[in-house]
């Protein structure tokens, strides 16, 4: 079902909130079964969230900054769950600095 939701949103721009929510649902649904795919999706979401936060002049207090912080935590957590602590640590540190 989550994959179908992503496919329905595939024609939307990368920054479209419905598309991003569908991708996040896919990552959550696949987290236990396919950690590598989950990480790939979370990294894609992080890239979009970084761009949105950089484009927002009020990023420190904005919704886009909160979404960026959440995305950093998700990618860090996915790395940690896969045993890649070296990749997880700088993401957790960046999350704390926001």
Present the secondary structure layout.
Blueprint: H1 2-8, H2 17-30, H3 35-55, H4 63-81, H5 85-97
Helix pairs in contact: 1-2, 2-3, 3-4, 4-5
What does the model show?
The chain has helices at 2-8, 17-30, 35-55, 63-81, 85-97. It is mainly α and 98 residues long. α1 runs antiparallel to α2 (17-30), α2 (17-30) packs antiparallel against α3 and α4 packs antiparallel against α5. The longest helix is centred in the middle third of the chain and has 21 residues, at 35-55. The model has no long low-confidence stretch (mean pLDDT 85).
Task: Name the overall outline.
Answer: flat
Q: Any idea what the radius of gyration is? A: 13 Å
Mean pLDDT: 85
Uncertain runs: none
Structural class: mainly alpha
Give the biggest beta sheet: none
Strands, count: 0
Share of β-strand residues: under 5%
Q: What is the CA-CA span between the terminal residues? A: 34 Å
Regarding quaternary structure, how should these chains be classified? single chain
């Amino acid at each position: 079902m989550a994959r179908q939701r992503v496919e329905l949103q595939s024609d939307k721009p990368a920054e479209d909130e419905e598309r991003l929510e569908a991708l996040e649902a896919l990552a959550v649904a696949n987290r236990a079964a396919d950690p590598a795919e989950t990480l790939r999706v979370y990294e894609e979401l992080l890239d979009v969230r970084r761009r949105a936060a950089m484009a927002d002049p009020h990023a420190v207090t904005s919704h886009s900054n909160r979404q960026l912080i959440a995305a950093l935590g998700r990618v860090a957590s996915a790395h940690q769950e896969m045993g890649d602590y070296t990749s997880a640590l700088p993401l957790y540190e960046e999350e704390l600095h926001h």
